[in-house]
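Fold it.
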Amino acid sequence: MMKRHLLSSLRESFLSPRRLFAASAILSLLLVSFHLAVLGLTAEERARGDINDILAALSSLAATLGLAYGAFWSRRLDRRLGLAWGCFAAGMLGWAIGDLLWLHATLSQREIPAASLADAFYLSTYPLFLLGLYLLPRAKAETSPWTWVDIAIVVFAAVGIYWNFVLAPWLTQLAPANRLAIWITIAYPLGDILLIGGITAALLLPGFSIWLPSLSFLLIGQGLAAIADSLFSYYTLRGDFSRADSFNILFSMAPLVLMLGGVAQARLVSRRLSGETIPLPPEQPLTILRLVTPFVWLVFAYLLLLFGPRLAPGLPCHQNWLWLSALLGTVAVRQVAAALQNRRLERALRDWAETLEKRVAERSAELLRVNEALRQQMEEQRRIQALLREREERLAYSATHDSLTGLPNRTLLVDRLTQTMRRYRRHPDQRYALLFLDLDNFKTVNDSLGHLAGDELLIQVGKRLRDLVRAEDTVARISGDEFILLLEQC
């Protein structure tokens, strides 16, 4: 109950993720603007360097707080998710401590340390960030077996570019006494490349699309850090710090982007905890991104190879061609395997289509058989209904007519006589007559000639009586040889 109350109060307070994200974006713009203003107004190189270090340390501390805030909210949704973002926050804390140690060393000694305790904290950031990426929970999604090959192509291309055109030329020109400082300097951009590869893997794998907004901030921040570390390594190995302003501002911008990533993660988790339905990013652009990314790096590597003699004139040409050949070979294997897989999928799709057509034909034939059986059943039902109607009509006719002569019986006679009497009461001028007839010596006919002859006699008498009267008159047989004639309007 206390946790729910705390979360609800945080959502409604100034520390709510939505408001804090807007405040963080404004703070980032202000810090970057202030940094640019200081660089433009401060003429002394040492003062500008101190201000750069101070702002970089402040940005790192802000990024640590932002990532810790994202870890706080992520833990409320999923323990493993909170642990992953906690690793991000711990790695950023190591970077912030490194910035503080670097700032203390530069302010107290007035010189740039070559290798110090600050480097240990800086370098601890990379394994912690990689561990956080490993701990990120994935949604259940089908992953292509060649996705990891695409990721390997990206990382291989990035590492090869950096090694062939940055590291190898520098290492051939440096003295062995500076190897420790050199390797520490080189470790930063290499760590950035591995980290960018890990974040790229998270973006390329389908199961991580639910965390796309926050991971995008991490990728942009690490990309800025990689550029800054590369420039720092380049000028450090050359011993030239006259252009430090060109990359020092990136050391302030990269942590601020990471801070926005942590707050964006908190905002995303807060929306999910409140029960809000968060639509997933459209799958088609992500699919296109996954297909295009390896080839973009391949084209980038090829362009660098074309301009390689200008970038690294002392590097043997065959080394570049060997590296690019290996990269092209990996891509070729990937494409051949993808083509074979597409052929298998096409064959499977064709078999599936044939199976589907066969099933449709079978179901259609079965449907025709069912329709025919249904039609026959409906015809049988119509025939039965016709028989029932005919039987009902016969029963109704038998109830009001004599079964032997077909003349009206006593029931129909009484009904017609009742109607005639009612009509006479309304119209006295419309008179009627009721005649009673019987056959004399009819018993003698039955006794001498048989009942069949007697029945035939009754039938003929009924026909003749019917022929003698009018259509509106009634000839009824009430019993045996007794007949009654109802004559209307006499």
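The longest strand covers residues 432-438.
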